[in-house]
Amino acid sequence: MKEKAAKRFRLALISPFLCGNYLGSLVNNVRRLSLKLDFDLLTMQTRNFNEFSIPLALNNIDGIIVIIDAISHQLAQKIIDKNIPIISIGTDYSPLNIDFVQIDNKDGIFQAMDHLVEIGHRDIGFSGDISISDIRLRYEAYLQYLTEHNMERNSSRIFITNDTFFKGGIETAEGFLKRQNPCSAILFSTDLNAIGFQERIQSEGIKIPEDVAIVGFDNIFLNRLKHPQLTSIDQNLDNISNYAVQRILKKIKSKEPLKIKSKIVPCRLVIRGSTSEKKASEPQVYEKKEKYLRADFEEGMLANNYEAVKSIILGHSGAIESLTPLFGPFMHLGCYANWNNPEKPDQLEIDRVFGASKIIEKNILKKGAIYDQSEFPPVDLFNLFTDKNHLLTMLPISIDGIKWGVFVMAGSSEEIESYSSYSMFTNYMDLLSFNLEKETLINEVVVREKKTKCLSEELEIVSQNATDGIWIWDLDSNRMEWNVRAINMLGFINEEEIKSQKHIPFYTRIHPEDVVKVKEKIHSHLERGVPLRAEFRMKTRDNEYIWIDTSGEAVLDKNGTPLRIIGSVSDVSERHRHQEKIKYMAFYDALTGLPNRAMIGEQLQSHIYNKQSEKLAVMLLDLDRFKFINDSYGHDAGDRLLKYVSRKVSTLLREQDFFARFGGDEFVFICPIENISKSKMIGERVLEELREPYKDEMGFDFFITGSMGIAIYPKDGTNSDELIRNADISMYKAKQSGKNQLKLFEKNMNETIQGRVSMENLLRKAEKNKEFQLFIQPQYQIDSNKLIGGEVLMRWYSAEAGWIPPSEFIPMAEETGLIIPMGTWLINEACNLIKQWQNQYGTSITLSINISAEQILKRKLLPDLENALEISQLAPESLCVEITESTAISDFEHTKKILHTLKDMGVQISLDDFGTGYSSLSLLKELPLNELKIDKSFLPGSKTKKVDWIIIKSIITMGHALGFRIVIEGVETKEQSDYLKQMGCDIAQGFYFGKPQPTIDFEKLLKIG
């Protein structure tokens, strides 16, 4: 058949599976785009993660989209070498240069964790199959959140599953019940896991969210049909698939190679009743409108058809071509081809052709035709129609690392009526692929059974246990036979080695520690009929051990006497490695390699239990000025510093001492001691070593110190919680006393910490009850003595404690995160006030508001300002935001981006406390500033201090040259005001012009004019 005159692009979409909520939705999205953007589509199911390496179709396609590890790095490299444009969805194939797009897994997990923490949860668990790359990213984000928020990392709250569907959730529910409800909330890596958990838990009478809150990931339709409805993270799959298709088409059409790009698509947390009905972002009552009724019907029809077809396909014993009527418009023509020529392993020969009889008669595909695998499926299938978009679906069959055959069918996307009909098709394809493997395995067994005379018995068992490898144990002769795949697992590859190992004695290669366990399992199976299933270690060719999972069944004679055992083996070493990694991640800090917070309690309790008569010193070390280093030089520098401290301190401790990272920049020592003086000596040695300057690999010189608190067992506590808490209290006292020192715990220190806790409780009540007030300090134009605005300040009058100074409550608000809602309130109030005064007095004043680093880092500033300006209808030019230098550099690139956005809106930007930081001059070039605000510490009391005035004059001159207006704070005398006027300063504030005052008093100044 001739090529079409106007060649349509051919894209290949390669996925581990073609069905399911995530993969199926992506596949269907790309199919719909093939109609909209007019390209032909080849979908291929590999049923593999990271392993599929067969270069099928590479010569017949223009571009490739890969979903989540569907192919190996080796095949990806071949695609790159052939200059075929490729993009990956969900997996970064580093170090290969491949475009990829994926959701922001970390952002989604952090949104969910923030929500759970906000509604009161601290003991939050995780469930998922972390062998899948994107789920592993979610798990790592979960662990990172725990670390960053100083939350306990507890292995009892982690549920690792081997299934992303309902079964995985049921497994988690069983673990949850067995561990006696170890957490108050669980974050699931898929919705289906969450739903499986929900149904199993509710059957036990456990209530959601009252007893345990749950969050899923995918936001599938089924979530809204559960009770309560499932809170979930929406992945924005439409955007992902659209970007992937548009990007690959752009690369195909481009005459020059395009730069490799990556795109991260944000998630959205959809809050429903499974976490909190009060916080629900969608109605809890699900109204079944027309489109939802239709979706209900289609989902029900899909489920019913799936079960019906499943029974047909899996129970089918005839040739696969007799199943083709099931596929309707999806298969006008199809074929099955085999790799059956050992001398030409890259060639496929068509074994069967099937489809519509009229099309078969045209001999487009011929039985016996041979194709190179890179030319398969044949190009004639892409030319089947002249006026329709082609949809080719391909199922490679590769078992035991051996290539068997390829099933391919050609249809048209234009004939597919709905999403559900395509979903049914992909489900049928999945079932068909299993049937093809079953047929292939049965054929293999038939050949082998002709040699062993045991066809009828082994065929039945092997078809049930078809998995990685097969073994047969003849009990009469005590002779065992292993198939090639099982032998390959042990590292024997070449033909001679395989032949020599065909009859490996069963117990000789089992790890000595596992032999008794395996013998007991086999004995129980033969004597009592207990199902045979065991995991154990087997020695490889290189005398190393791998973990094996085996299952089997005895074949009995007519009298019930066992004749042989036939079984299967799987290499589960990777799962064991994952379990060890999980254990490591749960109990060791990823950055420093030290034991983490979870292990500290266990270690401390173990010390106490085993050495009840011995004193122990529990020492808590906190680095001084670490936040400043992190903010000033970036988190990478901070991480390097933490690793340096870990290495440094480890060399100072004795063998019997325990050293761990408690979280953030805090470390814990557990030291057996003879007397209290010994603990002070150890602590002082550590602090002395820290005082030595540290030269960072990037050339920075860091001068750090530490503050340490010490609690002694049993004097200061008899359990781990008491000892850690009292060490923390004494460390806090060391901080209060000037840092760079240690303090031993004393009982009266509790009063201090209790006062701090009391203050935090008062602050939380104040935020909830809106006890804060706005005060404004006037700002005057110096040359005209005209009121032009003011600085908005927050003040707090507590009904229980009276006036509380900002120096006490602002740091605590930043530490607790309450600064975020407090800042939102202040912005709203300030905008409403300015607009009110403008309407009432016709004034053009500007109010300045102080912004904390937390508002920027938590991405709250921009949406808060936009919302406040919209509600108040205030012109942005009437508002000025003040940021300090330390705030600006806390996340410099993000801050710069936000400030540029605000400047474009018309909001004015002021750099506060100018001159007190370390990066002032460099900031002036980078940030979109309107004004510099000179810190009051530069302002001398009289004209006699010439050096101070010279500095101020220099700042004013430089600022004006750069186009900034200059504001100075702390003006207290007429003499200072006059001198600043002579120097050309623009604006001043201070007690000379007016103290911070309630808004009602400031309004009186406006009336005066």
Explained architecture:
With 1009 residues, the protein is α/β, with parallel strands linked by helices. Helices cover 41% and strands 23% of the residues. The protein has 32 helices and 39 strands. The strands form six sheets. An eleven-stranded mixed beta sheet has the order 11-5-4-3-1-2-16-17-13-14-15, sandwiched between helices. It has an eight-stranded mixed β-barrel with strand order 30-31-33-34-35-36-37-38, surrounded by five helices. Helix 6 (191-202) links the parallel strand 8 (185-188) and strand 9. Helix 5 packs across helix 6 (191-202), helix 8 packs parallel to helix 11 (419-452) and helix 11 (419-452) packs antiparallel against helix 12. The longest helix is centred in the middle third of the chain and has 34 residues, at 419-452. The chain is globular and about 110 Å long. Mean pLDDT is 82; it is low at 1-5, 283-318 and 445-467.
List the helices and strands and how they pair.
Elements lengths: L9 E6 L7 H15 L2 E6 L17 E5 L5 H9 L4 E4 L9 E5 L1 H14 L5 E5 L4 H16 L9 E3 L5 H13 L6 E4 L2 H12 L10 E6 L12 E4 L2 H17 L8 E4 L2 E3 L19 H25 L18 E6 L8 E9 L1 H4 L9 E3 L6 H4 L7 E10 L2 E11 L6 H34 L2 H11 L3 E6 L4 E4 L1 H6 L5 H6 L14 H14 L3 E8 L5 E12 L5 E10 L1 H15 L9 H14 L4 E9 L2 H8 L1 H16 L7 E6 L2 E8 L2 H15 L3 E2 L5 E2 L3 E8 L6 H17 L5 E3 L4 H21 L2 E10 L4 E13 L3 E3 L1 H11 L2 H23 L4 E5 L2 H5 L3 H12 L6 E6 H4 L3 H14 L2 E7 L5 H7 L4 E4 L11 H16 L3 E5 L4 H10 L3 E3 L7 E2 H10 L1
Parallel strand pairs: 1-2, 1-3, 2-16, 3-4, 4-5, 5-11, 6-7, 6-8, 8-9, 9-10, 28-29, 31-33, 33-34, 34-35, 35-36, 36-37, 37-38
Antiparallel strand pairs: 10-12, 13-14, 13-17, 14-15, 16-17, 18-19, 18-22, 20-21, 21-22, 23-25, 23-28, 24-25, 26-27, 30-31, 30-38, 30-39, 31-32
Helix pairs in contact: 1-7, 3-4, 5-6, 8-11, 11-12, 18-19, 21-22, 24-26
